[in-house]
Amino acid sequence: MKRFLFLLLIVFAGLSYLFELDEFLAKHFKVFGNLKESYINTYISVSQKVANHFEHERLIRELQNENLELKEYKVLYNTTISTIDNLKNLLENIEIPEINSKIEVIRVLSYVHFDDFTSVWLDKVPTDNKILGLISENYAAGISMIKNGKSIGLLNGNKDCTYAVFIGNEKNPGIATSNDESSDLLSVKFIPVWADINVGDEVITSGMDNIFYEGLRVGKVVEIKDFPEMKVATIKPYANPLKKRFFYTYEANSNIENQENSTVENLENSKIIENKEQK
Fold it and tell me: Which InterPro entries does the UniProt record give (predicted)?
């Protein structure tokens, strides 16, 4: 019985469409016309809302993706601006010695060990095993050397960071190294016992170790201890290298070294010639 009624309904609907029964009812019975118009308007309205909903979802997804991309660009922009500002400040404060020299800007990559802020990896391609001085704001900040085929920076306060210095107007020699009592201070050891040094004397690099040039400021003496074999001075350094992302290195031009080597060779050759002539 149910199948017969369902089949009858399908046949009735087909005949209605075939003989345009809906148009006949709409013309002669106003109620059917209103129902038809209301159905069509409702269908169009619902279809439009559904389409708008899916369109809004698509736009939201696109805007979310664009927002994520813009955030990435913003982070990159801020990082670049910060890098440029750091380089600008670094380059503005560079004082090149009045000799033929090579200046190179080096960027800090990361810490070598997370429990030691005084040793960092540097963005520098190793070329030789020469130790170079790291300079920040025209102050001695540490040294650069090669470790495991990579450039490493040993900043002031590191126990392996040492370089030659002069103390006071008399240029008393010593070796700057880490301080055992405070990471904010440095020690100058191996000062001759006869050296006349005082609290407040300025400490500068001596250049005698070929790491820094002579005259680069290191810090001021805040304490002096006398020992039987030497004096040890505690100094407050000028540089604060732990907060820096860029340093620059100084290196004497190789042409100067070549000239010095050739001068030594010429002197040796001249001595050999003189000895031969005397014989």
Answer: Cell/Rod_MreC_2, MreC, MreC_beta-barrel_core
